[in-house]
Amino acid sequence: MNEIEAALALFDYAGKLVTYDADVRQPEIGRWQFIAARDGAMQLYHFGQALKAINGLLARDLSIAKHVKTKLLRDAQTRFDTAFPHWHEVRQGAAHLADFSKTPDRVSGHAAPVSQIPFIEFRGGDPNTPIYAANNLHGCTYSCTVEGELSFMI
Hints:
Layout: H1 3-20, H2 26-60, H3 62-65, H4 70-83, H5 87-95, H6 97-100, H7 104-110, E1 112-113, E2 130-131, E3 136-138, E4 141-146, E5 149-153
Antiparallel strand pairs: 1-2, 3-4, 4-5
């Protein structure tokens, strides 16, 4: 089992405990899903960075590149970026929560318009009111706001 699979397994296991076992202390178990989601964000980032590093190496070293099926590598990069378009931003939000919320100016810099955040019930007012959403888990969607945009992974 690799790290991404382990994070998914923990997420699913904790979700089943919260849903079906009334004797389990819910707040602690519920936090396990956050831990798993954050770790999943980190592991996706590591994988994305590894793909970038491989592509960079191949661009610099043609003696290695001639032994690699570059179309398969390009296809893997495209599939990864399509499946996880916010992988970099979500990792930034997960890894830098304290940095992003250190000062009111930093919070403002990472806030996004409330109308862009689908899991917040918006009841009127200015839809452009900024809100900083950090370390959010709504169902199976982990999200955060980074540099004024909502970033998420499922």
